[in-house]
Amino acid sequence: MALTLSRSGNPEIYVRDRATGRTEQITQHWSIDTEPVWSPDGKYIYFTSDRGGRPQIYRVSPAGGTPERVTLEGDYNARASVSPDGRRIAVAQGRGNEYRIAVWDIETERFSILTPGTLDESPSFAPNGSMILYATREGTRGVLSAVSADGNVRQRLILSDGDVREPAWSP
């Protein structure tokens, strides 16, 4: 499993081997490294870091090494969700005080903005890659919404009560 620990007061990415119980630190930087997610093939751990001055998505081998910045556009990219085929990353992308759901194509190195909202966060790819769940605000309430991976279909999903935060698809 991948996780964020603050053993020395600074959040870093670690990998814990459940079989052996060993926990290995795989990032070491003065910045904040957080929100780790595995690539579907297990070759990378994607995470959010402000090591470049603002939150961006990076990736690193589970064995460690030098992290590589993945998102190359935008002031703020966080909360990565990797598509099942590993070719796209959904993020909460911020510009000023507006946060929208965007998809970064790893091959073309381009973003597609999928949502028109101003407070959209916590994207989660469906297991088949066709839809992305996300949380957004409607007035003072957090609500659940979904958008197709190409951005053509958007819908609000009705829940009877409560504030929605950080939705995730089941496998």
Task: Describe this entry's structure for a reader.
The protein is mainly β and 171 residues long. The protein has one domain (2-124): Neuraminidase, CATH 2.120.10. The chain has strands spanning 2-5, 12-16, 23-25, 33-38, 45-49, 56-60, 68-69, 76-82, 88-95, 98-105, 110-113, 121-125, 131-138, 141-148, 154-157. The strands form 4 sheets. A 4-stranded antiparallel β-sheet has the order 4-5-6-7, with no helix packed on it. The model has no long low-confidence stretch (mean pLDDT 94). InterPro entries: 6-blade_b-propeller_TolB-like, WD40. Pfam families: PD40 (PF07676). Belongs to the TolB family.
Short description:
The chain has a single domain (2-124), classed as 6 Propeller (Neuraminidase). It contains no helices and 15 strands.
Helix-residue proportion: under 10%
As residue ranges, the low-confidence spans are: none
- Give the end-to-end Cα distance, rounded to a whole number of Å: 16 Å
Taking all residues together, what is the mean pLDDT? 94
Report the C-alpha radius of gyration, rounded: 16 Å
Order of helices and strands: EEEEEEEEEEEEEEE
Indicate the overall shape: globular
Fraction in beta strands: over 45%
Count of strand segments? 15
Largest sheet: 4 strands, antiparallel
Individual helix count: 0
Relevant CATH superfamily: TolB, C-terminal domain
**Helix/strand/pairing category:** mainly beta
CATH first level: Mainly Beta
CATH architecture: 6 Propeller
What CATH calls the topology is Neuraminidase
| Total count of domains | 1
